[in-house]
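Predict the assembly for these two chains.
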Amino acid sequence: DTGVSQNPRHKITKRGQNVTFRCDPISEHNRLYWYRQTLGQGPEFLTYFQNEAQLEKSRLLSDRFSAERPKGSFSTLEIQRTEQGDSAMYLCASSFLHRDGYTFGSGTRLTVV
Amino acid sequence: EDQVTQSPEALRLQEGESSSLNCSYTVSGLRGLFWYRQDPGKGPEFLFTLYSAGEEKEKERLKATLTKKESFLHITAPKPEDSATYLCAVQPYRYYFGNEKLTFGTGTRLTIIP
């Protein structure tokens, strides 16, 4: 595995439902990031893990959002009580050192109907 | 608040017609400036990191340069496969542990016409 893997690729959910996304980073990378991207915009930072510790969270990450990275390997991002405004591409990225530049996954596209 | 502004929003070039994309930024202290390429429906693909004014990096037909206020991505003799959205991002330097956030611009959508 040479890349960052995200599942599912697409998710359609009804408003008010909970959704969970998974990210498998490059195995030797200790840093993991979640970003959100809407159409025509650049990615917006959500949160960052170094190993299993969540070290930074954006103000964008409301109480309905939670992220985990158990054992410093894969990560999950959960959105509770989804709203239409949550519709976006959710991108995961990983790196070993900040100087390397992130490696992004292909993202999970969420549509809330 | 860190800010990144990219121009133009969209650019159409004939194959072989060289041009430059601009990224203007404001950040209290720059740790790094990143360029990414993004194809439709995919995640951004890392191109370059620049750390200090005067630095330049090249990859195939792309060359990135950095000043204290802006960065340019020069595209020389582009081919249709260079068509993509090019994103610029800054990483600030903060005196506290754990700051890894990138602030992205909205990108320049580049189309190369055969």
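The longest strand of chain B covers residues 30-38. Residues 33 and 50 of chain B are 5 Å apart (CA to CA).
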